[in-house]
Give the backbone structure.
Amino acid sequence: MSNVAAIGYVCLYDHNWQALGKWSQHLAKSWSINRKAFELDEFQVECQGFENSKNACFAVLHGPTGQVKYASFCGIPVTKNGLTQITGIDCRSIFNQEVLVDYTRRDQGGSYYARSVSTLFEYLMSQVLIDRGIKSQLGIDYTLDLDDLSFMSGDWDEDYIVRSAEVRNVWKELMAACHCYNVVITTSIQIDNENNVYKLKFKVAREIYERRLKLSDYDVVMRLNQNIINRAIYCSTASPTTQYKLFLYNDNTIGTTYDANKALFPPVTKTFMEDDIDEARSNAYKELNDSRYKDRVTIDLNSKLGSTLRDLDFTYYGVLVGYNPADSSSDKKLPVCGLYEDHEGTKKIQFGRLSEYWFMD
């Protein structure tokens, strides 16, 4: 494999996307990008030393022809012995804000502001920050692309939301919504033609494509996790004996009746009891939605036939044939949740939502 494709150059920018340093691009000695669909990305790079990293806000890794490979917040660059080390912070962390999230908010017509998948994400990614008076104080300008959600007008489920106003973490609310509606938030930077500078863009995309693959054809590392909450009970504090049950099935759908042919084992139940039955129900659904796809299958894209999967991104599911080692004809559908690459040419793809740090959960 040629290493030409792995060559990278680093540029630091301030919050207005003005390049810093005497040389705008510095040759990267080493770099790695671990993109994650439902966790914050990990980005590390060591490059030719920056003589000036004061006021640095963004770090951008460019490819050999100048194309943007990755962009992140740069944290605090450390320069020593002529080299600068940068541990990037995912740009989506801009939504890691603890604010008053008001799901009872209404628009001028009197309808709930968040009443569809599209308006929910628009509210969480923009309007709630405007309402709290902090969006203009973030110091970062960005745009949203919610066009893909226009195809989800019939997917709204009121059971997933609690009509209350509470201090909530916006990032956690976004990830819960992503799990419920099978969507993912991605980041890109584009040229702002008016000002001729970069601009952040967040896109919410549907997970809609499928690729069928036989696991025996690839170099595979699997972590199969059965210790998940797969049954939920919810009730109100006023009527604790009036209980409602939910079940997570083996096809990653949620139902209200027990089906022995679809049940997951061993059975693990969690009960949610709140003053407000709607809040208890919403929490139960969120818990089971968070348990969906909790496995991890990693494939080395440099292994045999690995190149056939290099076009996959976070909008894909893998239908993994031979998922159960005891049954070569078995299959399981898991979303693409991780994409790793580094300066040495290593490329890996991860299917399933099980975190690399699952043992800490």
